[in-house]
Amino acid sequence: MPRLADLAELVRAPAALSVPGDVVAGAAAAGALGRRTPALAAASVLLYWAGMAANDWADRRLDAVERPERPIPSGRVAPGAALGLAAGFTAAGVALATAAGGRRAATVAVGLAAAVWGYDLAAKSTAAGPAVMAACRGLDVLLGATGGRALRAVPAAVTVAAHTWTVTALSRREVTGADAALPLRTLAGTALVAASAAVPPRPVRARPGRPLVVTRGGPTGVPGRGPAVAAALPALLAGWYAARYGAAQARAAADPRAGRVRAAVGAGITGLPALQGALAARAGAGLLGLAVAAAAPLGGRLARKVSPT
To answer: What is the rounded CA–CA span in Å between residue 293 and residue 18?
Structure first.
């Protein structure tokens, strides 16, 4: 029977802090924030953990050579147990998404699960790998949007997908190291991603016949000087994201050995909540965006105990 610590390492538990923000960003963009959002976020985490367990099961022979300390090759978790855990988390994630969001959420969750398993079992080592993983994160954002106007969440989904492409491209060289051109390319992508997330929210307008209700903190619920703070918040959070992740990529470009590349991958994973927070704030959910972004430093601290890569 594997220990809880071994299972946490198998599914890269701290990295799950980067997942709920996908759903929050999608729900905020689609105007669908509500009681179903926490359940959809939990379903997203289950599907993420399923993907991590399936990934290690699929890589068990390669890990025996490159990463013998991982839970499966070290003998701490049996291959069958990892596969069973991956299947169980997948079923639970799809079931929870269906219960919370109905048919629309079920459709996206099934597509997300298929993309996750497709990446782990087939696409990961191919040229299509980064694109498939990016699609997984994009679908995760759209899962949160299923209760509202999903088309409005497409820009947020594309932004998160683009970030994920950079992380996945780096992750393919975290064991062997890379040439300096790779982290420089992903750094350029990060700059574009941050710029797209920094766009301030559009002004809130009342619908015909309805008064505009402004909360104490302004239309976006950000305490302080209302619209001025709300307009600056996406840029501040996007800048924080770019600084955290960009600095790690710059270090990898200067010294592209495996350890620096692996550190950049970890920074991309643990820094994602800051980007998600910027997207939520851009959609008008300022306080919630700040709460999502707060997971970034927490994930960074936990990553020192359990590797997110």
So the answer is: 9
Three-class SS state of 215: strand
Instruction: State the amino acid at position 66 in one-letter form.
Output: E
pLDDT in tens, 249-290: 999 999 999 999 999 999 999 999 999 999 999 999 999 999
Amino acid at position 270, single letter: T
**Contact status, residue 273 vs residue 295, Cβ threshold 8 Å:** yes
CA distances from 36 to 3, 107, 113, 143, 146 (A): 32, 16, 19, 11, 10
Residue of 138, 129, 52, 45 lying closest to 93 (CA atoms): 45
Query: Contact at 8 Å (CB) between 161 and 134?
Result: yes
Placement of tokens 């929870």 in the chain:
96
CA distances from 249 to 16, 121, 245, 252, 278 (A): 22, 28, 6, 5, 20
Long-range contacts of 102-111 (CB under 8 A, 24+ apart): 102/146, 104/146, 104/147, 104/150, 105/36, 105/40, 105/43, 105/143, 105/146, 105/147, 108/139, 108/142, 108/143, 108/146, 109/43, 109/47, 109/143, 111/139
Alpha carbons within 13 A on the beta-carbon side of 163: 33
Residue 308 contacts by C-beta under 8 Å, 6 or more apart in sequence?
12, 14, 15, 18, 266, 269, 270, 299
3-state secondary structure of 110: helix
Q: How far apart are CA 77 and CA 51, in angstroms?
A: 16
Below-70 pLDDT ranges, the chain: 200-229
Q: What dihedral angle (degrees, nearest 10) is formed by the CA atoms of 214, 215, 216, 218?
A: -60
Take residue 179 and report the two structure tokens written for it: 């040439």
Cβ proximity of 168 and 176 under 8 Å: no
Rounded distance, CA 228 to CA 35, Å?
A: 29
